[in-house]
């Protein structure tokens, strides 16, 4: 079963950028891949989607600031996050469909 591992999180000042990676243990070229995030005390929320056909969509809260992309040759999906805000602080997770499961996530902390 293909597993996904998130990385690239860290501590950044407001207005800064980070690029998250979601690396798969095998091919995910036929999968849709989502990024979600969960802030302390809040429900997990959807952030971005990239389909197997490379169509993308992002939540209104990050539109124009976050970009999702994929490199099927590297079995990796990326989330480029620019103009970060303190409210972007959360644990970020990636998930593939069908047949995905939640991983450990990667922590993103944005200081004001």
Overview of the structural elements:
With 112 residues, the protein is mostly beta strands. Helices cover 0% and strands 51% of the residues. It has no helices and ten strands. Strands 2-10-9-4-5-6 form a six-stranded mixed sheet, with no helix packed on it. The chain has a four-stranded antiparallel sheet with strand order 1-3-8-7, with no helix packed on it. The protein starts with a strand and ends with a strand.
Weakly predicted, low-confidence segments: none
Give the count of helical stretches. 0
* Biggest pleated-sheet summary: 6 strands, mixed
What string gives the helices and strands in order?
EEEEEEEEEE
Specify the overall morphology.
globular
Oligomer: single chain
Structural class: mainly beta
Question: Summary?
Answer:
The chain has 112 residues and is mostly beta strands. Helices cover 0% and strands 51% of the residues.
Give a quick set of tags describing it.
single chain; 112 residues; mainly beta; 0% helix; 51% strand; globular
Helix-strand layout with pairing:
Layout: E1 4-7, E2 10-13, E3 18-24, E4 32-38, E5 45-50, E6 56-58, E7 66-71, E8 76-81, E9 90-97, E10 106-111
């Amino acid at each position: 079963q293909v597993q996904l591992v998130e990385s690239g999180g860290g501590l950044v000042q407001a207005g800064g950028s980070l690029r998250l990676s979601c690396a798969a243990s095998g091919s995910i070229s036929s999968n849709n891949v989502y990024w979600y995030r969960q802030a302390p005390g809040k429900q997990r929320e959807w952030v971005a989607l990239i389909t197997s056909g490379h169509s993308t969509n992002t939540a209104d809260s990050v539109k124009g600031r976050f970009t999702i992309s994929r490199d099927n040759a590297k079995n990796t999906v990326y989330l480029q996050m620019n103009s970060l805000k303190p409210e972007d602080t959360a644990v970020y997770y990636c998930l593939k469909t069908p047949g995905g499961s939640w991983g450990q996530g990667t922590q993103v902390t944005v200081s004001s």
